[in-house]
Amino acid sequence: MKKLFLASLMMLSLSTVCLAQGDSKMESMKEQQKVLKLNTKLNGLRMDYQKAIQETAELQQKAAEANAKANSSTTAASYSTSDASATAKVAKERAKVLKKVKKANDKLAKSQKKVKTLEKKIRDTEAELAKLDEKIQFVDQ
Description:
Elements: H1 2-72, H2 84-140
Signal peptide: 1-20
Keywords: Coiled coil, Signal
Protein name: SlyB protein
């Protein structure tokens, strides 16, 4: 009876140790899986960020061209009190140019906001990744 009791006690303690060790490995593997998912997310964010930067540069160039065109079209000599129809036509063209400038500047502002948002997401993801790396290194030790 004592032998049976000792054998069962030994098996119970051995299985407890094995389960505890297996749980630690599983936890470590789950953490590594989270790290891989975050790395994938981070790479996607970085690609989106590069695209947004290129788009912003293009929009910045278009906005600069539109602003230059709007600035060059402001001629006080084209407005005259003697020819009202010509003045109205010039004013209408000027309004179109200013509308294009506003549209280009709005697109640029939206693109710049997108870049800032992506920068923030990248920083947050990198911070979360650093935390998980520390956790994994602590578990491995």
